[in-house]
Amino acid sequence: MANRKILIFLVILAMGLVIAGCESMKRSRPIMPVKDYEKMIVGRLDADYVGTNNCLRACHAHDKLRKDFEASTMGAQMSSQSGMPIVDCESCHGPGSLAIAGLTPRKVKEAEKQGKTVTCNYKTLIDIKKLPAGARSLICLKCHTSNATFNLHYWSSSPHAMHGVTCIDCHNIHHGPDLIVSPRDTAKMCFRCHQDVKAEFHMVSHHPVPEQKIFCTDCHDPHGSMSDYLLKKDSVKATCTQCHAEKEGPFAFEHAELTSNCLNCHNQHGSVNPYLLKLRLPFLCLQCHTGHQRVAGGDTAEIKGAIYTRCTDCHSQVHGTDLPTFDTTNPGRFTR
Q1: Helix (H) or strand (E) run with residue 303 in it
Q2: Which entry of 3, 226, 259, 335 is 20 to 30 Å from 298 by CA?
Q3: How far apart are CA 307 and CA 282, in angstroms?
Q4: CA–CA separation, 125 vs 171, rounded Å?
Q5: CA distance linking residue 72 with residue 56, whole number of Å
Q6: Number of domains the chain is built from
Q7: pLDDT in tens, the chain (336 residues)
Q8: Running DSSP on this structure, what letter comes out for residue 156?
Q9: Coil, helix or strand for 306?
Q10: Is the bond preceding 30 in cis, omega lying within 30 degrees of 0?
Q11: What's CA 317's distance to the chain center, in Å?
Q12: Which pTM was predicted?
């Protein structure tokens, strides 16, 4: 009896330890003290904000960057007539008083006469490239999560964020007027990481992404999604039928396995087989269906062999049809 009580006690203790361990795993722990993390994205606490004009008039090393930034959507907010929150260099790079300390327009002109290039003290600014991925994105999210950018609501839990991809890996805020990546540039940008997908688009049968007739963002939302594979729609079929509406249905006679997931038969990016099929016909169909058998005539039927031809020669409406076949005993054979 005593041994039984000890056993029960040990079981309860073990369960308590497991539950406690699970609870500790759920807790959010910063990768460093919160104050240190804040310093990384705020900048030097002993520096003061001096404004973009004071930063850039002291040296001309950033003249082109300044022109590109002023032409952008964020640079437009620097205008006093914009009525929007001020966004300037210090919003991302931190307060700049220490960076331009001792740099006066007179000293800059004298140095330029001597052929020297005067730059600010970069070491006092936020070194964005050396920040952890989460901190780099957080600099952008300080502003972009407080506005109506709804597609960023899923960013923190997206595969890109989980794998260390940051905003500046795709968006160059010094690039020019348009900070949004052009659809024509998305494939080249995505292929830098997705080399396997790039190879699939070079197969014989592929979606016309290399030809720039469709783009990665037609199907995927790079900022995050509630669906698998960062799909814009709720399911694979809903995404595919944006273009292939004739396959959507509902049909009176539906191919059961095709009502939810087109990827049961097709490779979405590219394939060596026609129509993006995973296998050539009839072998694709034979994964689920048996082949037709050829039967000899006479009183005693004898199986002489099997017919393995291309199934779609007869069953042309493989996705579904509303028309029954002439065979009244077996209607709905997916034929015309």
Answers
A1: strand 302-307
A2: 335
A3: 10
A4: 21
A5: 17
A6: 2
A7: 666 767 776 777 777 666 666 555 556 666 666 667 777 788 888 888 888 777 777 666 677 777 887 777 777 776 666 666 667 788 888 888 898 887 777 777 777 777 777 777 888 888 888 888 888 888 888 877 765 566 788 888 889 988 989 988 888 887 777 777 888 888 999 999 999 999 999 999 999 999 999 999 999 999 988 888 899 998 898 999 999 988 887 888 887 766 668 898 999 999 999 999 999 988 888 888 877 765 555 554 454 555 667 888 888 888 888 877 655 555 556 554
A8: G
A9: strand
A10: no
A11: 34
A12: 0.74
289 domain residue, yes or no: no
Copy the structure tokens of residue 172.
């160059």
CA distances in angstroms from 329 to 61, 288, 312, 324, 326, listed in the order given: 82, 21, 21, 10, 9
Integer Rg of the chain from CA: 31
Clarify whether residues 124 and 154 are in a common domain.
no
Q: Give the span between the Cα atoms of 278 and 274, in whole angstroms.
A: 9
Domain range for 38: 34-130
Beta strands in 165-283, from DSSP E residues, in sequence order = 205-206, 253-254, 270-271
Residues in CB range of 45: below 8 A, 6 or more apart: 39
